[in-house]
Amino acid sequence: MITVKNLRKKYGSKVVLKGINLNVEKGECVVIIGPSGCGKSTLLRCINGIEKVTSGKVIFEDKDINNPKVDINKIREKMGMVFQQFNLFPHLTVKENIVLAPIKLKLMSKEDANKKALELLELIDLKDKVDMYPSQLSGGQKQRIAIARSLIMNPDVMLFDEPTSALDPEMVDEVSNLMKDLAKQGMTMIVVTHEMSFVKECATRVIFMENGNIIEEGTVKEIFENPKSDRLKEFLSKVK
Amino acid sequence: MEVLFNVWGEIVKFFQSIWDNFYQTIIYDNRYLYILEGLFNTLIIALFAVIIGIVIGVLIALIRNNYDRNNKFKLLNKISTLYVNIIRGTPQILQLMIIYYIIFKSVDINIVIVGIIAFGINSGAYVSEIIRAGIESIDNGQIEAGYSLGLNYSKVMRYIILPQAIKNILPALGNEFITLLKDTSVGAYIGIVELTKASDIIASRTYDYFFPLIIVAIIYLILTIGLSKLISMMERKLSNDYC
Ligand SMILES: Nc1ncnc2c1ncn2[C@@H]1O[C@H](COP(=O)(O)OP(=O)(O)OP(=O)(O)O)[C@@H](O)[C@H]1O
Ligand SMILES: [Mg+2]
């Protein structure tokens, strides 16, 4: 579904991604771990084209997303993204946040979008917040609504960039559980996270990055119980 | 008793002379009509100039932001930058004179309209900087969230960034309008009968400057103070809506 080929990314003269190769199949839940600054966010941002690649390719459903002939906005409709800082639109209510894109992109009628938004809110147990503004919600509620906002687009893949890192500890579970549900329903996901209960339960593959490179990849068991490289061992000893 | 009468007489005389003075300069010969005309022209010029200013300002701000972000509109961006630099780098009174004495030299046009155009063009440059700063003050995550939902640049601007930016820049825009309202007095220089010119006309008839100047000053104050009150009310209302 997604193929990343020899992806390199530079900011000025600083090389942040040094030739990443990655293939994600439908239904996979790929978790990316690695120390701060190793390029995890940059990789996700290159995959959905928010960041332009310096060289290499990102192929999504047989389309090269950096090909000027490809409509990147159409690609992004099918590629949800959830951010560490939620990035809800503060001037819109919960419902308006969710229905904005499908309505303005003319993918759904207003009625259908509103109905679908209520269904999603029901699903995430936040139906009573429908007319509230983001500032009136807790971090965990905001993040679940940000996920619903992506889900209404019926994405083929969801990218998560440390979705629980900005949350108070007692709110991590509500977001993590929602993500687990998604993974179990077969949603294709690429997740940057260090939230171990999610990783252990859902990851079909774990990728360890360091300094702009993929150092090691494997199953949860292989990565956490049987790390091969010294750098991964060192990283795991620090995280634990 | 006699002394008391004398004092009372002086007081009456004093107020009598003030009234006479007021009557002579403001009421007699319907001179207050100048002030009404001046007030009308000041308001009309400020209002239409600020509308023109906002239209130009939004356009320029979007052109320059689009250039900064997406490297589009290279030529338009150059022209916009030049325009902003010229307007901000020259005295307003000179711009007004150039527009009136050079550009509209041989055109038969109402001088108030010349004022509206000149002040509107001037205001556009300042408003564009205000709006640009407003757009840049919005967290980049908002743009990225918009993009990640498949919205393009213009939809992101229209539905996500500008509505938030406008709220942030409302006070600055209000101040711009207040400044504009006062700056229309520069129009007196090319003969626009706005408030300041009106008081000058009356004073030059009566050789008495007191009431014409004081009254006009009070009118300016009522307008500007009233406007700032209105702006802070709008601000409060908007910030009640969401945090
Ligand atoms: N816009 C930018 N301009 C310049 N350098 C950048 C920019 N964005 C990121 N970087 C640099 O690129 C490197 C990788 O950043 P990135 O955000 O991808 O790391 P990360 O693995 O997500 O880290 P974290 O765990 O802290 O989120 C960092 O050294 C960062 O300073
Ligand atoms: Mg990151």
Walk me through this protein's architecture.
- The complex is a heterodimer of chains A (about 240) and B (about 240).
- With about 240 residues, chain A is α/β, with parallel strands linked by helices.
- Chain A is built from nine helices and ten strands.
- In chain A, helix 3 (about 95-105) packs across helix 4.
- Chain A is globular and about 55 Å long.
- The two termini of chain A are about 35 Å apart.
- The model of chain A has no long low-confidence stretch (mean pLDDT about 95).
- Chain B is mainly alpha-helical.
- Chain B is about 85% helix and about 0% strand.
- Chain B has helices at about 1-25, 30-70, 75-90, 90-105, 110-135, 140-150, 155-185, 195-205, 210-240.
- Chain B is elongated.
- Chain B starts with a helix and ends with a helix.
- Chains A and B meet through helix 2, strand 6, helix 3 and helix 5 of A and helix 6 and helix 7 of B.
- The complex binds adenosine-5'-triphosphate and magnesium ion (MG).
- The site of adenosine-5'-triphosphate (ATP) has 10 residues of chain A, from helix 1.
